[in-house]
Structures are given as C-alpha cells and as structure tokens.
Amino acid sequence: MKLSLKIIILLFITLWGTSCTSYKDVAYFQDMKVDSVYNEKINNYTQITIQPGDLLAIQANSLNKDQDNLINYNLERTNGTSSVSINRPGENVIYGYLVDQNGNIKLPFIGVVKVAGLTTQALGDQLEISLSNYLSKPIITARIQNLKVSVLGDVKTPGVYNFNDERMTVAEALGMAGDLNTTGIRQNLLLIREINGERKYIKLDLRSKSVINSPYFYLKNNDVLYVQPNKDKVFGSDSTLQKVALLISALSIAAIFITRVN
C-alpha cells in the first residue's frame, strides 16, 4: 500500500512538472526592480526614416491657397475622406506620394525629391525651403501613411497591424496582438527588419529588462515579430483543462492499478 501511494505521488509530481510552464519562462522583465520607483533616460529611441515603398501624406499651408491645392490634391484621399472609390474598374489611384525604389517622390513645382533616409520632420523642413520660391511662407508637414508591423507565431491574435504614431515599441506591438500565449518562448523573440536594402534577424529576450534599452525595442515600418512556441504548444498541451484532464486520467489508471494489487 505504501509503495502504491509512493507511485501515485511520483506520478503526480512528474505529470504536473512536465505539463506546467514555469514562472521564469513566462514573466517579463524579471530583473527589474519592483519595490521602488526609479527613472532612467531614454537613449535608444531613433526616429523612423522614410524608405522605398512608404506612402507619404504631404500637406502644404501657405498664403497661396491655390498653389497649396496642387500639392494637397490627394490629401483628402490619404485621410480617408474621399468619395472616390478605390475599387473603381480601370482606376489605379495612389493615395499619397509613393516613394519609389530609388527613394524618390515627385512633387509639383520642384519635381523629383530624394526622401529615403529622411525623417518626416526633416523632409518637412527641407520642403519648406525648396517650395519657398513658389509658395509664400509655406508650412509643410509630412507623415508616413502605411506604417505597419506583423506579429506572427504563438500570440493570441497573429496578424498585420497598422499604426499612426511613428513611435512604436515591441511591447506595444505584442499588446496589439493580444500578448504572447503562455506557451510562447519569451527569451527567443525574433525581429526581422528590412532597411536600406538589407534584412536583419535579431533575437530579443523579453524576460530581461535589457530588452527595453535595446536599440531594437522601438520598431520600424514593416518590421516582423515572430514568437516561437515551446514544446507544450507543439504537443497540444497548451491549456489548463488539457493538463487537468491528463492528470485525472493518470490518477484513474493508478487507482485501478492499486485496486487490482490489493
């Protein structure tokens, strides 16, 4: 009888230990101090720069409203207030200024403008100077219309997510996707980034606070985040109910064994 009891206890410990994800594999920022409030400077943020394939909204405001309209002609479409259907047969409308593969756009008055590598603030400042010969006291604003990030793998809601604010973090992107499932591997988050004609693969560890200070904590346009599942997910034991059902089945088998022995 004592031997049978030991078998049950051993079986219980083994099944529970193998079926449960430990705290150290799930918690974020484990080395962060949580017993006090402290401040630190943000030194790892860099502004998003314009890249080929970006769609720019450019707005001109000056004392020459008629000339402004030549630049702003598709601004309403860009802001989604146009009554023109984008599904109209035979129509290939670009809503904004599309940056070509050479990193250029073409604007009224000044023609081809090299924009790749510039921030939207720098582009606005540059255009104010370039257009000052055609517009009276121009104020130019620019923004990227098609900012997006893809979140794939072991998260609640994988998908492609659009965002308007140029300041987007890894944490915010994962939050938009509903956060990692408990079976997602926190220490092996893969960031795929294409910039300046190159593709980079970066591994990030969400369990450590150091990820917040990483130069890759702030995302860029078209970044891809991939969350790798652990073995629990692969074998289909990613829910508490499944674990409990497995445990009950094992205990039932053990009980039958003990009954037959006695």
UniProtKB/TrEMBL annotation:
Residues 148-227 form the SLBB domain. It is a multi-pass membrane protein. The keyword Transport applies. One of its GO terms (molecular function) is porin activity. InterPro entries: Poly_export, Poly_export_N, SLBB_dom. Gene3D superfamilies: Outer membrane lipoprotein wza domain like. This is Polysaccharide export outer membrane protein.
